[in-house]
Amino acid sequence: MPYAKSKGARLYFEETGSGRPIVFVHEFGADLREWEQQVRWFSREYRCIRFNARGYPPSDVPESDDLYGYEHSAGDILAVMDELGIERAHIVGLSMGAYATLQFGLRHPGRALSLVAAGVGSGAPREVRVEFKAHSEALAQRFLNEGSPAIAREMGLAATRVQLLTKDPRGWQAFVEHLSEHSAVGSAYTLRRYQALRPSLFDFEAEFAACALPTLLVVGDEDDPCLETNLFLKRTMRTAQLWVVPGTGHAVNLEEPAAFNAGVQGFLSAVDRGCWRTRDPRAVGGGALPVARASASADK
């Protein structure tokens, strides 16, 4: 089995196709299998790489808290790229993987061709930070006490995931089955160290404002915990565009695979052809009507 060595863990990866590379980075509740519909599509023209995060077998499941956390997330992407001899790649992430994708863009901008961050932002708004941390820690303990199978179905019925059940019951069942197979220890440590302790994306406002990488932000309009953060990122990143997918929850790539693939393909094509543009400064801070000028009489 192919592995990339990162700090404190070996990461299992798979690659399919040839061409410019795309690295897919999965969310907390998923693993590399949830990118299957993207790999089948993009591998026709791209070299697709996906890997399991630390704590997700067959990647290693370290038993030390210190070997988990957002600090490792960008480094793990880099380790997979280095193992495969990839100098630059498009990075596509969902949720926890989208957080890692954005961190990679900030820490290693010279190694990224572009960033796609889908469903990013849970727990980022400052008013929910304390609650999000407590919820993550409580769920971590439940994974240890009850095991992954007991948690999987409950997570699948969460407010931002029931959309998948409604649209694609078979896809939802596969998601739940995959989640039930996850390591309870790996999930618990990921929740405690990565989810609960990662800084808010709002803390990186200056860094995002300086980021020059082409970026596509994707969020479902029913993914309430992520909407505010995506608006913040759109307003802050001058090279970002925001795509809000109607009638869609958290796992955009699973709920709307055809639309997701088409939207991301259009973005990657624009980047590869050099057609992705920064935001026109005239579009910032104004409205749909011209600014009113003082009347001639008022000038006298």
UniProtKB/TrEMBL annotation:
Record keywords: Hydrolase
Any GO molecular function: hydrolase activity
Span of domain AB hydrolase-1: 21-257
Top-rank taxon: Bacteria
Keyword Hydrolase set for record: yes
InterPro entries per the UniProt record, alphabetical: AB_hydrolase_1 (IPR000073), AB_hydrolase_fold (IPR029058), AB_hydrolase_sf (IPR050266)
PANTHER family referenced in this protein's UniProt entry, alphabetically: AB HYDROLASE SUPERFAMILY PROTEIN YCLE, MONOACYLGLYCEROL LIPASE
Protein's name in the database: Alpha/beta hydrolase
Organism per entry: Zeimonas arvi
Taxon lineage: Bacteria, Pseudomonadati, Pseudomonadota, Betaproteobacteria, Burkholderiales
